[in-house]
């Protein structure tokens, strides 16, 4: 057998929110995704990937590169602020919040080059060519805030890439821009590991619904980007992994827990009449809503929270109240007092006034509920040297992905997710 003379290379393409039934049953949705289906045919793919709790982008992407659950890697939510009254809340953009080794750490330790485009929780990471996902939370359209992304990118890299993107910068979709950037970095900088985060499907699925024509069109468009990147890769030494962080479920009603929490006296009002932080913090995440005691609560505070939760349960919006013991079992946020899991058809917002329950005027799709909820399964497809063709992986765990990627890169697998076994792709 001819031995490989170069180190293996890996491209990881995250299609935020993509459901595995899209490649298992594409005809059911009228999807034309030849490149994704080509990878399924030539490689291994999962029927379902069980995500983490909550099933949201930032905790899940941290798990993808560490193999650890949120309680271990430290990214419990998308938001870095627990203040529900804050107007522009910062997100968990910075890699310093990750408390365990990552794939890029292992690559760096072995002297191999890495690149990442809009990967969540990667700002400031030890990545050679990095354009992180980060924006000014006060801007109206985060996807067009190039200035903040440039500020936190590898020195000189954003300006270099901008020359390539200039002709399409103001007309292309975010996924098209990310695909073009991926090709530039791959062909010019030759990383051993390239991480790319595609977001158009997630945005359209939230706005119009998971199987709406506009959301499905975004899947077809990202398939084109996957095809372009696949064509550019050398199949002799490069594996391509297409995956997602969570799935999506449809919603019809919005629930605003903060309205009831405020009515029960758990939020303050300042001199201008605006809501202000008291003792209770909160994070809304679509399918879940977590609350936190920021100071030791009084007996009255605890009774007020109990009453608010009971009122919310009576609306039908709450599928389950997840207490601290259950959160510990789920290896989720250890700081939360409790987490509300949305009932089917509902999502939780951060709205502070108006009715507690109303028909949705914003989102038609969501995620964030417990990872066992049907429809929230993530996706996984892998193709490349040594990967079996047309192999069905069945149901796997998101925590298995990092050690699997490490194995493809011939990195030590016991450093990432030591409790999880790599998936057998052969």
Please explain how this structure is put together.
- This protein has 14 helices and 20 strands.
- It has 426 residues and is an alpha/beta fold.
- The strands form five sheets. It has an eight-stranded mixed beta sheet, with helices on both faces. Strands 8, 15, 16 and 17 form a four-stranded mixed beta sheet that branches. Strands 11-12-14-13 form a four-stranded antiparallel beta sheet.
- Strand 9 (268-269) and strand 10 (275-276) form a beta hairpin.
- Helix 8 (174-189) packs parallel to helix 10, helix 9 runs antiparallel to helix 10 (213-232) and helix 11 packs across helix 12.
- The radius of gyration is 21 Å and the shape is globular.
- The two termini are 17 Å apart.
Overall 3D shape: globular
Question: Strand portion, in percent?
Answer: 15-25%
Q: How far is the first residue's CA from the last residue's CA?
A: 17 Å
Structural class: alpha/beta
Count of alpha/pi helices: 14
| Low-pLDDT residue intervals, each spanning 5 or more residues | none
User: What is the total tally of β strands?
Assistant: 20
What percent of the residues sit in helical stretches (DSSP H or I)?
A: 25-40%
Quote the average pLDDT: 96
Largest sheet: 8 strands, mixed
**Rg, alpha carbons:** 21 Å
- Give the spatial strand order of the biggest sheet: 5-4-6-1-7-18-2-19
């Amino acid at each position: 057998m001819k031995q490989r003379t170069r180190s293996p290379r890996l491209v990881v393409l995250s299609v935020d929110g993509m459901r595995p039934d899209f490649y298992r049953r594409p005809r059911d949705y009228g999807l034309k995704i030849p490149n994704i289906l080509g990878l399924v045919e030539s490689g291994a793919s999962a029927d379902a990937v069980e995500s983490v709790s909550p099933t949201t982008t930032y905790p899940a992407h941290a798990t993808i590169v560490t193999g650890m659950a949120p309680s271990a890697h430290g990214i419990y939510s998308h938001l870095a602020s627990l203040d529900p009254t804050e107007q522009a809340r910062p997100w968990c953009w910075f890699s310093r919040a990750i408390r365990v080794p990552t794939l890029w750490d292992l690559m760096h330790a072995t002297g191999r080059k890495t690149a990442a485009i809009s990967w969540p929780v990667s700002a400031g990471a030890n990545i050679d060519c990095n354009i992180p996902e980060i924006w000014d939370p006060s801007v109206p359209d985060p996807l067009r805030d190039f200035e903040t992304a440039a500020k936190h990118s590898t020195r000189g890299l954003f300006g270099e890439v901008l020359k390539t993107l200039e002709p399409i910068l103001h007309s292309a979709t975010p996924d098209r821009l990310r695909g073009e950037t991926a090709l530039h970095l791959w062909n010019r900088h030759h990383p051993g590991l390239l991480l790319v985060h595609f977001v158009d499907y997630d945005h359209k699925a939230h706005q119009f619904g998971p199987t709406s024509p506009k959301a499905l069109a975004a899947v077809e468009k990202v398939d084109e980007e996957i095809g372009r990147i696949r064509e550019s890769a050398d199949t002799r030494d490069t594996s391509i992994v297409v995956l997602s962080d969570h799935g999506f479920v449809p919603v019809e009603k919005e629930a605003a827990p903060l309205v009831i929490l405020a009515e029960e006296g758990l939020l303050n009002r300042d001199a201008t009449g605006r809501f202000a932080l008291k003792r209770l913090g909160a994070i809304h995440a679509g399918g879940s809503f977590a609350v936190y005691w920021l100071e030791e609560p009084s007996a009255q505070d605890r009774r007020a929270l109990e009453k608010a939760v009971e009122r919310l349960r009576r609306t039908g919006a709450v599928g389950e109240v997840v207490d601290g013991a259950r959160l510990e079992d789920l290896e989720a946020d250890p700081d939360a007092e409790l987490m509300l899991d949305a009932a089917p058809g509902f999502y939780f917002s951060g709205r502070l006034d108006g009715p507690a329950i109303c028909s949705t005027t914003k989102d038609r799709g969501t995620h964030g509920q417990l990872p066992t909820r049907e429809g929230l399964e993530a996706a996984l497809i892998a193709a490349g040297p040594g990967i079996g063709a047309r192999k069905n992986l069945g149901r796997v765990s998101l925590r298995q992905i990092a050690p699997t990627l490490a194995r493809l890169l011939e990195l030590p697998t016991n450093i990432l997710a030591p409790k999880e076994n790599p998936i057998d792709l052969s």
